[in-house]
Design a protein that fits this description.
The structure holds 2 protein chains of 2 kinds. By secondary structure, chain A is an alpha/beta fold. Chain A is built from 8 helices and 10 strands. Classes of the chains: A alpha/beta, B alpha/beta.
């Protein structure tokens, strides 16, 4: 529509025509199916900003006399997206191939970069840390174990924070990578704060780089949680490796000054 | 002979040909690889095995005087015996000797006195030892009888209400952390078509060296496995089984540091299936290998007795390793699980050997490869109710694509005669499944089974075709790996990182301090009774 040619920063959802604003949502309401339920779904859709809204599918859940109804709703979202107001964390470092990362480590550190990985607390989901560290890697990229100039230890699941701190000290780790999948009751945030505090207390400014990752993290929260970097969903080993090289090279430069 | 309710009605009729020589070689290598580990397990006991003996004898509850009341009495007593006289001869003799010396009739009275510090344990000899052994045997036999009665009750209820109308059995997970929230969800799932309800455990529980007590309302990503939670959920499913005219089974998890005790509680409360893998705790939870193999052996003897179907965890390998390159590690683990299970007295119908649909869907022919792998397992273990696990690794958050993938997963399950099908969620790796996700997932299963369940009749992969060749190729790779493991020793292979990339040395990992080498005169009346009933002599 004309608003978009005039204001390239303003957009709205695209269904099948520019500017139609069409979206699709699905949800469940705790009530039996029927005309009243569909009316209720429409009311919710309208309050969500969909106008007009269409209930295209409604069905009772769980068999028998259902007390829940599932809806699929299509509608036109009246809201506009202002790209000028969208704030994201842009990658502040160049993406390196494994070979380039190895060369950079050789040039700046002149020794192997020591990486320690773990899942902390009661979290037993090592999928994330394994994807980043295991040779096998993730999304077609090999994990950090594959990088010749990195010495990687994966402590696995349910490592306590004190264990991690003492191991990091013993290994003289340059970077500690922690993955957190379980987010019930914000366990991931609590654990991360505890982790940051423990390293700060034990090692002060000489603490290793602390990198945290998990599907439910907001990468913008690093500072608030007291860690150096947070990686969210879909992060690949190459991104983590590039970040480590970038951050540690900067650290070395600072030390040299 | 009694008939067993089982998700494989009868042995699978072969539709591909596996190389018979390879099959024979794989089995004999698995037996050779497992033998030293079985001896190791026979020569040792653990604190959890000893606690399970007391649980069989009826000691339950926790010490209310300390902390949140979370130290179970069995831990108190076993720890005291260990501190005073050691566990090398087992917990039974010193405990039942003390019962007589101090004049207690009830283990709970003894446990309270132990906590008060008024009991001095001693090792009985001669006639006193015989008396203690006989008393301990009587007490543990009562627990085993309760397990036997539960098994008979299950058989009776299955006869009365009936088994699921079709195979595979539909297995669905609930886990809110709150048992009172889980119950209505489980009942709703059963009404919507689930045949087996699994209550996932709270994440940290596998590493607790005690079993929590009572009904619990808070857990992380799951609900604690406790005797009371088991009882509550089984009662709720009995209610819904009656309503539906179909016996709905209950599953929980034995793996972890308390395998023997949780297996015992499962038998005492008539659970129907238990997750119980021979190496999962070692590889994925860093539990000490010795501890795992000893605990596993006892827990599987209990499962065998209780008529519980075990579910093994091979699907886990494929979440970290590549589902094509490492397909043979699944086969190797299945063969080892089978060997350990048979030794512990489990019958083929009790072996829910695991495998999973985890091949990258972007890989050409991925569906044919999945069929080949599933058929390999089906033909290698024709009498076992295989457990077929849905895609997780390649569920990207694109729920629409995920729903299609789950449909193909269900189709493989239907085509290859799987016994137990864990329902895949399109929201895997995104959120805890919504009520609607579960409903859609069950509709997906129903559609595929209703539309294509009978296709097994028409599905005949050609001799020497892609599927048959691939199945034999994976089997050959499995034989190669088993050969290596046999040469190297299973424990060394685990230490070297043969399974997954994780290295797990035999003297590392959690729970090693709970392992005790048996001395002459070791007495475990529960094991003696169970082995006698299996028609075997006493071990060690």
């Amino acid at each position: 529509m004309s608003e978009q040619t005039q204001h390239p920063d303003i957009i709205r959802p695209y269904g099948d025509t520019t500017g139609d604003g069409m979206v699709q949502v699905s949800f469940t309401l705790p009530m039996a199916p029927g005309p009243k339920a569909e009316g209720a779904a429409l009311q919710l859709a309208t309050k969500m900003g969909l106008d007009p809204a269409m209930v295209v599918h409604a069905t009772g859940l769980g068999g028998g006399e259902s007390a829940y109804t599932f809806f699929v709703v299509y509608g036109r979202a009246g809201h506009l997206v202002d790209l000028g107001e969208v704030v994201v964390r842009e990658r502040e470092y160049p993406l390196l191939a494994a070979k380039e990362a190895n060369l950079a480590i050789k040039a700046t550190l002149r020794r192997k970069l020591i990486v320690l990985g773990a899942c902390i607390g009661t979290d037993a989901h090592t999928v994330g840390i394994d994807a980043i560290l295991n040779v096998k890697g993730f999304a077609g990229e090999k994990g950090l174990e594959y990088y010749r100039e990195m010495k990687v230890s994966n402590l696995g699941a349910q490592v306590t924070v004190p264990e991690l701190v003492s191991q990091a000290r013993k290994d003289r780790a340059d970077a500690v990578l922690v993955s957190q999948v379980v987010t019930q009751r914000d366990a991931h945030l609590r654990n991360t704060r505890e982790l940051a505090a423990a390293f700060r207390e034990a090692m002060g400014d000489h603490r290793p780089l602390i990198v945290v990752g998990g599907p439910r993290f907001d990468p913008r929260m690093a500072e608030e949680l007291g860690v150096d970097r947070i990686f969210g969903r879909g992060t690949t080993p190459g991104e983590v490796a590039s970040y480590l090289v970038h951050a540690l090279a900067n650290k070395e430069l600072l030390r040299a000054c | 002979m009694r008939t067993h309710p089982t998700p494989t009605a009868s042995a699978w009729h072969p539709i591909i040909q596996l190389d018979k020589r390879l099959v024979g070689r794989a089995r004999s290598l698995a037996i050779r690889a497992a033998a030293p580990v079985i001896s190791l397990a026979q020569e040792r006991t653990t604190v959890s095995v000893e606690r399970a003996v007391l649980r069989l004898a009826g000691l339950r509850g926790a010490d209310p005087t300390t902390g949140d009341g979370d130290i179970p009495w069995v831990n108190r007593v076993v720890d005291a015996v260990r501190a005073q006289v050691g566990l090398e001869r087992g917990v039974a003799q010193p405990v039942w000797h003390a019962m007589r010396v101090y004049g207690y009739d009830d283990l709970l009275d003894l446990a309270e006195a132990v906590t008060a510090g008024t009991v001095e344990f001693e090792l009985p000899f001669g006639a006193a030892a015989t008396r203690a052994h006989n008393a301990a045997t009587r007490a543990t036999r009562a627990g085993l009888r309760r397990i036997d009665r539960n098994r008979a009750t299950r058989d009776r209820l299955v006869n009365k209400h009936g088994d699921p109308p079709r195979r595979p059995w539909v297995y669905l997970i609930v886990a809110t952390g709150d048992i009172y929230e889980d119950i209505p969800q489980a009942q709703a799932a059963a009404r919507a078509g689930a045949d087996v309800i699994a209550v996932i455990r709270s994440t940290g529980q596998s590493l607790l060296d005690f079993v929590p007590e009572g009904a619990t309302r808070q857990g992380y990503a799951g609900t604690y496995a406790t005797q009371e939670n088991f009882r509550l959920m089984r009662a709720a499913l009995d209610e819904v089984s009656k309503e539906l005219g179909r016996y709905v089974r209950l599953t929980n998890y034995a793996s972890g540091l308390c395998m023997p005790e949780i297996a015992t509680l499962a038998g005492l409360e008539r659970l129907d299936m238990m997750l119980n893998d021979s190496m999962y705790g070692i590889l994925f939870r860093d539990i000490n290998p010795q501890r795992t193999f000893i605990d596993q052996r006892f827990s599987r003897m209990i499962h065998a007795r209780a008529g519980i179907i075990i579910n093994t965890g091979e699907d886990n390998y494929l979440t970290t390793a590549d589902a094509v390159d490492d397909a043979h590690t699944v086969t190797v683990s299945q063969l080892l699980n089978e060997t350990f299970a048979h030794e512990a007295g489990l019958a083929n119908w009790q072996l829910g050997l695991g495998h999973a649909f985890e091949i990258n869907p972007d890989l050409p022919e991925s569906f044919r490869l999945e069929l080949a792998h599933a058929l390999l397992a089906r033909h290698l273990f024709p009498e076992a109710p295989l457990k077929w696990m849905p895609p997780t690794k390649h569920m990207t958050g694109d729920i629409f694509r995920g729903y299609l993938l789950d449909g193909f997963f269900n189709l493989v399950g239907a085509l290859t005669g799987q016994g137990i099908l864990l329902v895949g969620m399109m929201t895997e790796a995104v959120v805890t499944p919504f009520l609607s996700d579960r409903d859609l997932a069950l509709r997906n299963v129903r559609y595929v089974l209703d539309a294509a369940g009978g296709l097994t009749e028409d599905f005949r992969p050609p001799r020497g075709g892609f599927i048959e060749n691939r199945a034999n190729e994976v089997l050959a790779e499995a034989v190669g790996l088993l050969q290596r493991i046999t040469d190297e020793g299973l424990l060394n292979a685990i230490a070297d990182g043969t399974f997954g990339i994780t290295k797990r040395p035999v003297d590392r990992g959690k729970g090693l301090d709970g392992v005790i080498v048996k001395a002459d005169g070791y007495d475990n009346p529960a094991v003696t009774l169970m082995e006698a009933d299996l028609g075997r002599g006493e071990s060690s």
